Amino acid sequence: xxxxxxxxxxxxxxxxxxxxxxxxxxxxxxxxxxxxxxxxxxxxxxxxxxxxxxxxxxxxxxxxxxxxxxxxxxxxxxxxxxxxxxxxxxxxxxxxxxxxx
Length: 101
Description:
The protein is mostly helical. It contains four helices and no strands.
């Protein structure tokens, strides 16, 4: 941990994880007992697991889009219908070609 201060002053976003790791390290007989706390702290700092998970999701999305494109759908339709992050609140009408009603 560099300074313990956040970018705009105050505590950094990972300070709580650092405290958990530091507390475990001081109280344990072996540093290997604190591996979980160390992993949490490092994930907070670098987001390595989160990035790997996002890359896997994106890879599956691209693979699905390529498979659907090979089945005859236009690539633009595949990309317009499928969004990596979506909550499904807006559904596109397939048969409606007019924009005004």
